[in-house]
Structure formats: C-alpha cells, structure tokens
Amino acid sequence: MNTAELQTIIRSLQEFRTDLLHVEAKRAEAELPKRIWETLSAFSNTPGGGVLILGLDEAAGFALTGVRNPKKLMQDLASICGEMEPPVRALIEPHRIEGATLMVAEVPEAELGHKPVYYRGAGLTNGAFVRVGDGDRKLSQYEVQVMLASRGQPREDEAPVAEATVEDFDRELVAGMLERLRAMERSAFRERTDEAALRTLKAVVRHEEGWVPSVGGLLALGAYPQQFLPELGVTFVVYPTPNLGEPGPRGERFLDQGRFDGPVPRVLEPVLKALQRNMRRRAVVRGLYREDLWEYPETALREALVNALVHRDLSALARGTPVQVRMFPDRLEIVNPGGLFGPVTLDRLGEEGISSSRNQVLMKLLEDVPVPGRNEVVCENRGSGIGAMLAALRQAGMSPPLFADRIGTFQVTFPNHTLLDGDTLNWLESAGGLDLTDSQRMALALLKRGEAVTNASYRRISGLDSRVATRELGDLVQRGLLKQDGSGRWTTYRLADEALQTASTAPRRKRADRRGEIVALLRQSDSLSRAEIAKQLGISAETTNRWLARLRVDRVVELTTRTAQDPRARYRLVTRASSHTSSRASQ
Q1: What architecture (CATH level 2) is domain 515-581?
Q2: Do residues 439 and 553 touch, judged by C-beta distance below 8 A?
Q3: Distance of alpha carbon 340 from alpha carbon 322, whole angstroms
Q4: What is the per-residue DSSP string for 267-297?
Q5: Backbone angles phi, psi at 552, to 5 degrees
Q6: For 248-252, what is the mean pLDDT?
Q7: What is the separation of C-alpha 114 from the centre of its chain, rounded to a whole number of angstroms?
Q8: Of all helices (H) and strands (E), which one includes residue 18?
Q9: What's the Cα-to-Cα distance from 93 to each of 1, 52, 77, rounded to whole Å?
Q10: Phi–psi pair at 90, nearest 5 degrees
Q11: For residues 203 and 217, what is the distance between their CA atoms, to the nearest angstrom?
C-alpha cells in the first residue's frame, strides 16, 4: 500500500466516521490494543482480507494520533501474527502522514485449506473470528464446521439413509434419468441394470449388509424425501412490509405462506407458481411497442432457486434448516444454509466457468434428471447459472442481485425496481449519457440510486471482462459523468458533481418524437449510418444521436459495431422489434 492509497482510506474513515468491512483503525500510541488477535483472525477468515491501521483515534473522528515507538509496535504485532494458527503473514509497514507515524498491517485472506485462522491462546472454539460490517464477530460452532469442511470435498450427500429403500424412489424420475443416460453416445449405462446404474451414480450406497438410498439420491429421485429428511424442503412467506416481523396495516404478519416438499425436480415449479401468484405484472414500453413482464424474470428466479437447493449444506447441523424464500414489497430473498464453497468468491460470481459443487453426487444426478413437464434437466453444472441470472435481469433493465456470503448462509436478494425507468432515462438524456453502452447506462442508473460501483460490481452488471470494464468506466470518467476515488483494490466510482446537478436541476423539455420516422427509414434499408439518417430526415446530428440512443435503450435498433464512436458504426432494426412496430411507426 502506498501513501496515497492510505490517505484515501483515512478520508473514507473520517467521512463515514466508522470502521469499514476491510479496514480497522485503532489508537495505539504506546502499545498494542488488547485482543488485537481478534482482528487478525477476522481479516484472515474474511474474503479479501483487510487492513489494520494503528495510530488513528476513532473516538476523535479518526484523528491522527500516531504511534510513539514504531519499531517496538511492529515487533509486537509480528509476534502476535506468529501466535495465530496458522501464522498470519501480514505486511507491516510504517507510514508518515501529516507529521504522525502510523503502523499499517495488510492482512491477506487465508487460503481455503487453512481456514479458520484462530489465536492459539484462545483455542479454535473461542479464538476464530470473522469480519461483519465494521466489527469482528466470533465464529459459531456451525461456521467453524463449515470452514473445516471446505478444506476438502464434503460427502454428506453420499451418506446412507438407513430407513429408506429403493422403493422410496420416484419411478418416473428414475426412468427419465436412466433413459437420458443410456441415449448418450458411448454410454456406460446401456449394459447395466437399473440397480447397477443407481449404485454407480451413488444414488444407492452400501449400508451395513445391504444397499440403501443416499441423501443425494433421495433429494434428486425420491418420491417424498421429507419422510426421512423432514426439513430439507422450501419455505415460502410473503411479508406485508419491508421490515421482517413488522405487521401490515390490519395487523397481518404475512400475506401468503407455504411449505414445499418433494424431490428437487418436483419442488421447482410449485415454488415458482407461488411467486408468480404474488407478483404483479408491469407494462414496459420499449420504444414503439409494449411488453408485459413479471416483477422478477422467471429465469433469474429459477436459477437462484436451483442454486439454493443443490448447493445447500447437507451436514448434520444444517439438516434442520430449509431453503427460505422471502418476499417483501421492495425485494425478494432466497436463503440457503451453507455459504459459498470452494474457490468461488463473491467478486467472481457470474464469471464464465467459475463453479464449485459442495454436493457432487446430488449435482451429478440432477444433470440428467428431467424436470417433469419440461424438456430440460434440472441443472447443467457448467458454472452458467449465475451468468444466466444476471443476463435475465439485464434484459429486464433491473438491478443485479445482491449476494451475501455469511459462511453459515448464502443469500440472494433481488431488488424490486426497474433501473431504466422514465425518470432515469430523462436524466440520462439531460446529462448527455444516452449515447453509451447498455452497461454504462445501467451503472449510471445504479449510482443515481445511491449504490456504489467498483470494477467487480461493474463486471456483474455488464457481463464484461475486467479489461473491457476498466475501459468503459474510464470512458465515463473522461466524459465527466463519473469521478474515480482511490486506486488499486480501493477504487470506487461515484457520480460527478455536474451529473448530480443535472439530475436535480435539468429542465425536462418536450421534444418531437422522431423514433417512428427513424424506424420507417431503417425498415427500407438493411442499415444506415447516423449521418445518413440525419440527412434523410433533415434533422441535426444532435437530435439524431438522441433518438438513436433512445431506440437502442428500448432495444428497437442496434449497432453493427461495438460502440457508437466507431467510424464504421451503422444502425439496423432489432429483429424482434420489427414485428411490433409496424402499426405504430407511421403514427
């Protein structure tokens, strides 16, 4: 960390007047604070690690008090790092800022196979912590177990269910799976009996002197798995207010509720129907045609629900907790026991090929179990689920979901709003931000709503790789729409003051709608350049840019090149739009 980055962090602490998730500041003029090992453990166990700054006084608004004996403090802190299990390899350096000497320790996140990191003097039970918000919290017994289990491949889905027999399988599901497997080229299952195939797939496992269904086998193929595993289902609740536990205007605690049991392939549709029963449809006008959409895209909900069911923790301490679907007026939450598993991290969710299966047997079975009534399997296990979820939300013009990994639980939250609504489009137009890529407009809309944007969150919004995301964010900075704060891993982006002023003060001018004329022109040609459209309609380049940008937002026209700035850029009708616009283009 260089001095400029440290100064940026200190400004953030002083502005927000609190420690941050990845930053802890303490006053330490003469000696180390008591129980400093809690923070060393917490940062080591938290994704991304953290920075410990000694010489700032939180009680005085993070004033720079400095440290008196930097050498001794550095040695003492290094000694504590060595007393952790495993030892913490922190980078400890002094920094001189505004006449004060600060001691800064950059604590890396521990490797997966070394978590949880704990203080040997307190033991594993009392010495392991994790970072939550701006503080350190002791890990629960269950969270310690989850971390220990992540050091290897969990096998809870292979565990035998002693009371069950093969008669407890759903014959239709078994037949559908085996038929699919045997139809594959060079299939190893063509010459095997049904019983042998189930053993090979570990849907049936040995127990004592016989063979019984496994936990994964029952969840994938069972007629009623909850006969043996009562809580491994889904609960569904619709709340009347945004605050959990707060009653509605008539004192009602919830508006709808239900419990859904059965194997994973048969649970999906009833839960989705319950969601749709409680969703409103909203009309979205895309240029010259209208679409009726559900509040939440079905694809996004299906992928989130499948992920929760197949990646949930199946260990003994988690079997009493069902997957929870909670619907509020302003959001939808899907929660499953067990946090992220393996090398998957929050900032890499949605990247192509990033996948790790906690329940390998269950996942392998569901790759070949058809969903009843649908010509598709339950899941692909190709790391594409999160990507499909994000793409569906982008297509609907909605915010990306919020992911929360709390070690003991994993939660997906879908905000209930459309990013590119009328007010936001008017603001983008006033700020000169319509002639941008779709991902750039989405990022600006998120920032307008008060959410932070980083390179990682921009990649989730856009589906782009880091290099392209950096270039597009840099373009927004150059245009004067964004301001960059910090550098390196601390880089964040916020709306520039000029863009903020435009959002609140820009007048809304009524302009003649030229979209119908542009669509009519494009219908007569495969594609046209911006200059050709302006010349044929007799309008200015600025007006042409504005309405072409609006038509791109509405997905009525598209570019033949990646950006509008490309000198070869031409515009053409989106195929889907052509069948919807004919009746209104001439109006």
Answers
A1: Orthogonal Bundle (1.10)
A2: no
A3: 17
A4: HHHHHHHHHHHTPPEEEEEETTEEEEEESS-
A5: -70, -40
A6: 89
A7: 25
A8: none
A9: 9, 11, 11
A10: -80, 150
A11: 4
Spatial distance between the Cα atoms of 84 and 106, rounded to a whole number of angstroms? 15
| CA distances (Å), origin 394, targets 333, 441, 460 | 18, 11, 10
pLDDT in the model for residue 507: 46
The pLDDT value given to residue 584: 38
For residue 96, the 8-state DSSP code is E
For 176, the token pair is 């559908």
**Measuring CA to CA, which residue among 256, 239, 281 is closest to residue 418?**
281
**Interior CA angle at 335 toward 332 and 338, to 5°?**
160
Reported as a single tens digit per residue, the pLDDT across 469-524 is 888 898 888 888 888 877 777 788 888 877 777 665 544 444 567 888 898 888 88
Which residue carries 């799976």 as its tokens?
A: 177
Give the helix/strand (H/E) hosting 256. Answer: strand 256-260
The number of residues making up the chain comes to 587
What is the distance between the alpha carbons of residues 47 and 108, in angstroms, rounded to a whole number?
9
Q: What is the CATH number of domain 422-505?
A: 1.10.10.10
* DSSP secondary structure string for all residues of 40-80: HHHHHHSTT-EEEEESEEGGGTSEE---S-HHHHHHHHHHH
Query: Which residues on neighbouring strands pair with residue 403, listed in sequence order?
Result: 412
Q: Is 20 in contact with 486 (CB distance < 8 Å)? A: no
The count of C-alpha atoms lying within 13 angstroms of the C-alpha of 83, restricted to the half-sphere facing its C-beta, is 17
Mean pLDDT of 259-288: 83
The span from the CA of 132 to the CA of 24, in Å, is 12
Instruction: Report which secondary-structure segment, H or E, holds 394.
Output: helix 385-395
Model confidence at 583, pLDDT cuts 50, 70, 90, reads very low
**What Cα–Cα distance (Å) separates residue 358 from each residue in 102, 140, 341?**
43, 20, 6
Return the structure tokens found at 187.
Answer: 């299939």
433: its two tokens: 């931000």
CA 332-336-339 angle, 5° bins: 115
Q: Hey, where are the domains in the chain?
A: 3-139, 156-227, 422-505, 515-581
The set of residues, in sequence order, having a beta carbon less than 8 Å from that of 446 and lying 6+ positions away, is 399, 419, 453, 461
- Give 20-58 pLDDT, tens digit per residue: 889 999 999 999 999 999 999 999 999 889 999 999 999
CA distances to 212, 215, 265, 363 from 161, rounded to whole Å, are: 6, 6, 19, 18
Amino acid at 156: E
DSSP-derived 3-state class of residue 414:
strand
Same fold, 422-505 and 515-581: yes
CA distance 484 to 220: 48
> Is 290 exposed, middle or buried (CB count within 10 Å of its CB: 0-12, 13-18, 19+)?
exposed
CA-wise closest residue to 258 among 246, 244, 272, 245: 272
List, in sequence order, every residue forming a beta bridge with 260; answer none if it has no partner: 234
pLDDT at 181 exceeding the cut of 50: yes
How far apart, in whole angstroms, are the C-alpha atoms of residue 512 and residue 514? 6
Do the beta carbons of residue 229 and residue 220 sit within 8 Å? Answer: no
Fold category of 3-139 in CATH: 3.30.950
